[in-house]
Amino acid sequence: MSVHLNLELTDHCNIRCRMCSQSLRDEAHGVPHRFMTWETWRAALQGLADMEDDVHLCPHWLGEPTIHPEFDRFIEYAFAQNAGNRLFAEFKLHTNGVVFPAERARLLIRLANDPHMAPGTFRFLHFSVDACSPEVYARVKGADKGPLVNRNIERFLRERQALGGRYPFVTLAFVVQPDNAHEAVAFRDHWAGLLTSLGRPVEQTWDWPSREADTIYFRPLNCSDQAAADRLHAETCRRLGLAPPGVERLRAAESF
User: Fold this and answer.
1) 20 to 30 Å CA-CA from 161: which of 83, 106, 193, 254?
2) Which pLDDT does position 128 carry in this prediction?
């Protein structure tokens, strides 16, 4: 049996995505935004040693984990304590990629390929991108960070190639919505082209990635008018060649 555990390093966020209310609030969980302390992180990790089930660990919930002032120290410590997978069986990171320097990229690649843990312990690094052009990124994400994010992700992919790392695979996420749907094909073509040029197989999907491969991931917007959002997602998936028969979400969208 597996337990999926989110240890939230922070509930702060450094951008203001239109589809996420978290960055628009001055508080979360009923208290002001804050950062996890070193003592709390260490104690939480040590508590995992007593878990009987396999733990799938993610240092993220509502905020952006990489803006924690000690993010690198926290993650490196977690992996140092996990030799033989004694604390967690899997690790997954979600990030918007805004604060992602070269040193961090190299650290994560090294940790993901640590021979003291089972292969695939750190299988996926999830980048929330949601746009192709700088203009659409600024509109959807509420910050003029699109070119920076693209450079950070591209550098990560090239570093992984240079270091010969199999892991982590990346998922490049695109939440389909009225402001960005017209860029879905360009988004796919840009990232698929780069990954192919680096010799990495790449897949695209309309649902959460499950296979060990770099994946471009198109998901529907969750909103008050879910029927309209599902229709737009279905139409976008068709343009991408992602409308296989029997997909329940797409069939449901077509029925409205």
Assistant:
1) 83
2) 97
Residue 165, judged by CB atoms within 10 A of its CB (0-12, 13-18, 19+), counts as middle
* pLDDT at 244 (0 to 100): 45
DSSP string of 128-143? Answer: E---SSHHHHHHHHSS
Are 84 and 116 in contact by the 8 Å Cβ rule? The answer is yes
Domain 2-254 sits in CATH at 3.20.20
Domain ranges of the chain: 2-254
Token duo for residue 183: 């860029």
Query: In sequence order, what are the residues at sequence separation of 6 or more whose Cβ sits closer than 8 angstroms to the Cβ of residue 109?
Result: 156, 159, 160, 163, 165, 167, 168
Tell me the C-alpha distance between 143 and 10, whole Å: 19
* Number of other CB atoms surrounding residue 245 within 10 Å: 6
Q: Is the pLDDT of residue 85 over 80?
A: yes
CB atoms within 10 A of CB 135: 13
Dihedral pair phi/psi, residue 47, rounded to 5°: -65, -20
Find all residues with CB under 8 Å of 139, minimum gap 6, and list them.
18, 131, 179, 180
Q: Report the C-alpha gap between 187 and 132 in whole angstroms.
A: 5
